[in-house]
Amino acid sequence: MTAVLRAEGLGKRYGKRWALADCTLDVPSGHVVGLVGPNGAGKTTLLSLASGQAVPSAGRVTVLGGGPGRLARVGFVAQDTPTYAGLTVAEHLRLGARLNPRWDDAFARERVARVGLDPARRAGRLSGGQRAQLALTLGLAKRPELLFLDEPVAALDPLARRGFVQGLMEAAAEQGISVVLSSHLVSDVERACDYLVVLVASRVRLAGETDALLAAHRRLTGPPGAPPPGWHVVAAVHAERQSSYIARADDPAPDPAWTVAEVGLEDLVLAYMSEDR
Amino acid sequence: MIWLTWRQFRASAATAAALLAALAAVLALTGPGMADDYAAGVAACKRRPGGCGNFYQDFYHAHMAAFFGVTVVVLLLPALLGLFWGAPLITRELETGTHRLVWNQSVTRTRWLTVKLVLVGLGATAAAGIGSLAVTWWAGPVDGSAARNIPSFPRMGPLLFDARGLVPVAYAAFAFLLGVAAGTVVRRTLPAMAVTLAVFVVVQLALPLLVRPHYAAPVRASRTISEANLDDFFVGRNGEPVQLTVQAQAPGDPDAWVLESRLVDAAGKPTGGTINVSTTSGPCAPEQNAPPGGSRSAQPPEGRSPIAACLAEINRLGYRQRLVYQPSSRYWAFQWAETGIFAVLAAGLAGFCFWTVRRRLS
């Protein structure tokens, strides 16, 4: 399978501060990828570099097998889903049609109607959720092969989040495009994503298909002290009577003293986020 | 891209067009009448023995308010275009985040900026051009009288040269691109407007003072002192020396820009107006011409002036008016030279804008 996004030692410096450093990543195509990390981890920077909006200070990034900045083939829905406040919904679609050679006008009109946007309404008077839907429509109707979304739902209420993620999943499945979605909340991406990248302090801590990641990790609870052999500890909580670990099993040896339970995606991500290295 | 740029620009373009149309209408209604009055007045005064000095003064004073009004409009227009069209062109997108929407369509930033600069820049230069054309046409008669007034505003001088003809168009292009460039650096509208205004004012003051006098080597002339160039003449009581001042005007060329006008002695040294000539005896003794302690204006009385003898004596002693000036025959050469300078500056700023938008903003 070819990589839609590949980064090798990628770094970006603003002044003296590295917003992203030594980032290496390989994302296969055909996935809805959740890019998760705390604020300031470098998610926005990584997406800016991948979409060609910023120039790397170090390393290399390839998108769809070539350099970044392939505007027609890569869509980008920016943080806070900006739109022109003075332009109507219909004028935004016209903007999209004028500025994109592969624009799918029928899809755009149909989608605007489906999510209940009034074409005559100015974008400045839309709610946050409606504006996000408009921005997503613009991103999808240009018919990209790869769509980046940078924290698109951060400012939305839970209902609007659900509507947005739902719409995104449907469209991604319909059009068969690859999607990279960044968020600082696991719950946003949990529903939509089948591939997960955890970025902490500008480094990739975990990357892989969601199901495989969940299958490889377990929560271990047992007597205080070191975990059984064969487990790679990600996070540990020590109490007086027992120790609790979230750990990855490469070749676990069964040990009746330990309780082994499945771990949820949110706990897994939090474990990697808090992991000290 | 043209559609989007025009859609964003059309409201301010309509406002500017309406204001310019109103100005043009007022000028079109009042211009022909004023031009007729001027032509008739000049024709009449040329037949009178006293000459046209009084007519020019009266005509200038009658239209002084409108003269300064339209001049200020043309002087301010480029600055306003730079502040309100140039500075917000990019910063408004940066402040609302819409640059991240438009830069992610299938259009490169270079194309995006090119269309914006060309379309809005053409609008700005057209607005300045129309404004300057209308005012230059309307103000022809007042400018003619202003050049012959004291204090005079010659066509080549720093005020009128900047507010007539071709240069306002170049100023507008420069101010517009200055605003855009400031916006790409400062990234916020209000600070960008402040920077634009400050830099534009400095350039507009520095250029006429430091650069414009050197577009061509100025003409140097040494004039004898006569009643034609005499401004004020004073003979003191008790043998004090003669004090006189001369008019800072090029001979036969009221529209020339006088860079220097000095009274010098036979050795060529500036005198500051003090003439070492005997005032107790000889042609400059007060008894022979003016009442003691009296001051005489340059207006000669009817017939042969008693000042003439004294002036002849002063000239005989080698006193001269030294003039350095740019004659009005160079008006269009200077206009083109200055337009060229500002066009080059504007092109440099445009290049800088492309560089910042492509490399520095994200």
UniProtKB/TrEMBL annotation, chain A:
Gene3D superfamilies registered for this protein in UniProt: P-loop containing nucleotide triphosphate hydrolases
Residue intervals of the ABC transporter domain: 5-226
InterPro entries: AAA+_ATPase, ABC_transporter-like_ATP-bd, ABC_Transporter_VariousFunc, P-loop_NTPase
GO MF, one example: ATP hydrolysis activity
Presence of keyword Zinc-finger: no
Top-level division of the source organism's lineage: Bacteria
Protein keywords: ATP-binding, Nucleotide-binding, Transport
The protein, known as: ATP-binding cassette domain-containing protein
Species annotation: Actinomadura rayongensis
Lineage: Bacteria, Bacillati, Actinomycetota, Actinomycetes, Streptosporangiales
From TrEMBL, chain B:
Transmembrane regions: 59-85, 117-139, 159-180, 192-211, 333-357
Keyword set includes Signal: yes
Keywords, ordered alphabetically: Membrane, Signal, Transmembrane, Transmembrane helix
Naturally occurring in which organism (per UniProt): Actinomadura rayongensis
Ranges of biased composition (kind: Polar residues): 273-282
Key word Transmembrane helix present: yes
Signal peptide: 1-35
Protein name according to UniProt: ABC transporter permease
Disordered: annotated span: 270-303
